[in-house]
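Workshop exercise sheet. Pairs work together: one partner reads the sequence aloud, the other fills in the structure field after running the prediction. Swap roles for the next sheet.
Pair: D.N. / O.F.
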Amino acid sequence: MSYKISPAEHESVEQLRAAAGAHKIHPDLLATKRLFQVLCVAKWNQPKALARLQRFSELYEELELHDLDPEGSIKQEFENRVFFVPPADSHRGILGFRLRFYNPEEHDRTTMARALAHACFTLLEHEEVAREGVILLGVGMGAGWKNFSKDTEKLMLRCIQDSIPLRLPQLMVVEPPFFFSVVLTIMRPFLSSKLRQRLRKVNRTELVQVVPHHRLPSDLLPDADA
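Structure field:
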């Protein structure tokens, strides 16, 4: 999908690409014009954009994101665990993850982060996502202590908060498990002040007051089984 960028934004893209060449950024990312378009249409100033690019480059190598192939075996890594809904009809895109499908004893800590990265890449094909951001949903139904890992949660935060240039204007945890307040206390130092302010706990009835029924997976509708 093509971005409709203004002449001023196009000039910003070229200036940012030129400046990025002097930094230690993975060649794959330097060659990805869309990434620079994302940073420019989202109005990131150049120092902030370059810092984000460097962090993204580190994550790109650590998670081996060059292997991400939505049509290949990588699909099994994010099936059920992560879902995304593109923007449509003036509604923001949605990015969500289901905690109950992650088990630290069975899955590598990068599994959820790679799944989130794939979803972010796909959503950022839409210009509206680059400009307006997405609604982030953490789905807590059915999750237990076995699904929580501090290292995994920190890596996921690095991915969506500090590395991939995706705006998160809304963050909701849907029907969090009983121990969520403990998890939040553990993770609070790693959450940015903006995300802490935007974080909301909601049940499914409250969720559909914010996001229309037709935009949600069936398990997030009020009459769905947990």
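Discussion prompt: DSSP finds eleven helices and five strands in the chain. What would you look at next?
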